[in-house]
Amino acid sequence: MDTREKGFVSAETVARLAGVSRSAVSRTFTDGASVSEATRKKVLEAADALGYHVNHLARGLSHDRSNIIGIIVSEIPTPYQARLLDEMTRQLQTIGKIGMVINTTGDAASVANALRQTLNFRADGVIVLSGTPDASLIASCVANGQRVILINRSDHIEGPANLAVENAETAQEAYHLLRRAGCRQLAVVSSTAGTPSLMARENAFLAAAMADGLAPSVVKAGPTGYAAGAEAARQLYSRSGGPDGVFCVTDLLALGFMDAARHAFSLRVPQDVSIIGFDDIEQAGWESYGLTTFRQPVEEMVEAIVQLLSQTGPADWPHAVPPIKPVPIWRKSVLPRPETT
After folding, report:
1. Residues paired with 71 in a beta bridge
2. What's the structural domain count of the chain?
3. Which of 6, 17, 171, 231 has the fewest C-beta atoms lying within 10 Å of its C-beta?
4. Domain check: are 288 and 206 in the same one?
């Protein structure tokens, strides 16, 4: 006879079938708890017959801990976000946490709604990958015992930890790589998204160029993606005096730019134009692109997040985390440094 019930089987039902107390069931499924072997055997047999599974959410909430980590993110299909989510959810599981991904559009209203959802589900913490949350909502999360981690967001909000990549210094390095390659007519391909990390890259590159007396063109042909990069190339090369050195603030923009430059304008990369990206997505290393870029160290970033979430007391919680430096990845989209005579 099938003894399995419809819906979730309760510990009370297991206790009745096993002929033991409710507390004996709880002790059986609690690591290190004291229970006799005979009782354990009866409980496990009953649990197996009924299809019982421990309700970790209810158990955690009884101790003010859900083990849920909210992850607020937009543009999930993009290679960088997908890679970050993959690494993050896997590493969270290694410390007994479950990632609850909330897909947003990245605007203020959707991010605010996502934060409220993390409070409704009593999440232990929340990681904000997209959008800049309102300070009052952040304060509400912190007041409810949530650990809040902002990734490449604003660093002037009180309460959360901010894990940032060294965007400005890296963009300056991109400028010097192009200059050492002999590039004189420079351009920055950015995005209408205007996120803090993208703006930091754009502004730092422009500042480095202006310090040398140069004024690069800036093109923002749409949101951060392949199509916007291709459109940027069409805008720049549809008139005379197009750039011979281009810094794209993401790899997706760079790949779109490269394809349009080569196929619509018959330009050679890097002989006619050198191109540098940012992120080191998988496609950047494909043979057809060979994009020189800066790798965001995703594994290191996620390890830092896991370490933050593993800390136990409020006194341990930092508000400032040292920035993580991207790694330059040299491929074939930038001319080698010219020989000096």
Report:
1. 101, 127
2. 3
3. 6
4. yes
The DSSP letter of residue 326 is: P
Along the 341 residues of the chain, how does pLDDT read in single tens digits?
A: 444 445 567 888 888 888 988 888 878 877 777 888 899 888 888 888 887 776 555 555 445 567 889 999 888 888 999 999 999 999 999 988 989 999 888 777 888 888 888 887 888 889 988 877 777 788 888 777 788 888 887 556 667 888 889 999 999 999 999 999 999 999 999 999 888 889 999 999 999 999 999 999 999 999 889 999 999 999 999 988 899 999 999 999 999 999 999 999 999 999 999 999 999 999 999 999 999 999 999 999 999 999 888 876 555 566 567 889 999 999 999 998 765 54
Q: Is residue 341 part of a domain?
A: no
Do residues 118 and 70 touch, judged by C-beta distance below 8 A?
Answer: yes
Co-location of 171 and 262 in the same domain: yes
Query: Please, how many CA atoms are within 13 Å of residue 110, restricted to the half-sphere of its CB?
Result: 13
Q: What is the pTM of this model?
A: 0.79
Domain presence at residue 338: no
Pair (16, 33) in one structural domain = yes
d(Cα 55, Cα 163) in Å, to the nearest integer? 33
Structural domain span for residue 84: 68-165+298-325
